[in-house]
Write a structure and sequence with these properties.
With 121 residues, this protein is mainly α. The chain has three helices and no strands. The chain is elongated. The N and C termini lie far apart (66 Å). Keywords: Membrane, Transmembrane, Transmembrane helix.
C-alpha cells in the first residue's frame, strides 16, 4: 500500500497553497455571481417601480449559470493541478477547458454590465 504523501521539495507547499487559493477565488466569484442573481430576482418581485424591469428572471438565471460554471471551472483546475502536482509535472499553464469556462463567465459579467447600463437609460 503506497503513501499518498507528496514530498515537500522545492515549491511543492507553495504550489499546493496556490491551488487552494485559486479554488477559493473561484468559490468567491461564484458566491458574488449568485448574490447578483438573487438581487435581480428580488428587485423584480419585491421593489415597486414605475417601469417594470423585463430582464430580471432571465438575467438572474444567466448569472446563476455563470456561478455554477465558475465552480465547475475551479474544481476542474484544482483537480487537474493536484494530479500534476502529485505526478511532479509542471502545471502553471492553464488548461483549455478552464480557460473556455472562465471566458464564458467573463462574457456573462461583461454582458450583464452592458444590459444594466442600457436598462438605466
Amino acid at each position: 500500500m503506497g503513501s499518498n504523501m507528496v514530498p515537500n521539495t522545492g515549491s511543492t507547499a507553495r504550489d499546493f497553497c496556490m491551488l487552494e487559493r485559486n479554488i477559493l477565488s473561484h468559490f468567491k466569484l461564484a458566491l458574488l455571481l449568485s448574490l447578483m442573481s438573487s438581487s435581480f430576482l428580488l428587485h423584480v418581485r419585491l421593489v415597486p417601480v414605475e417601469h417594470e424591469s423585463k430582464g430580471g428572471v432571465p438575467l438572474a438565471s444567466v448569472e446563476f449559470a455563470a456561478a455554477m460554471l465558475a465552480i465547475v471551472a475551479g474544481i476542474w483546475e484544482y483537480y487537474s493541478g493536484y494530479a500534476d502536482l502529485r505526478q511532479t509535472r509542471a502545471f502553471l499553464a492553464a488548461t483549455k477547458p478552464h480557460l473556455i469556462l472562465m471566458s464564458v463567465v467573463a462574457g456573462v459579467v461583461f454582458g450583464t454590465c452592458i444590459v444594466l447600463v442600457v436598462q438605466d437609460q
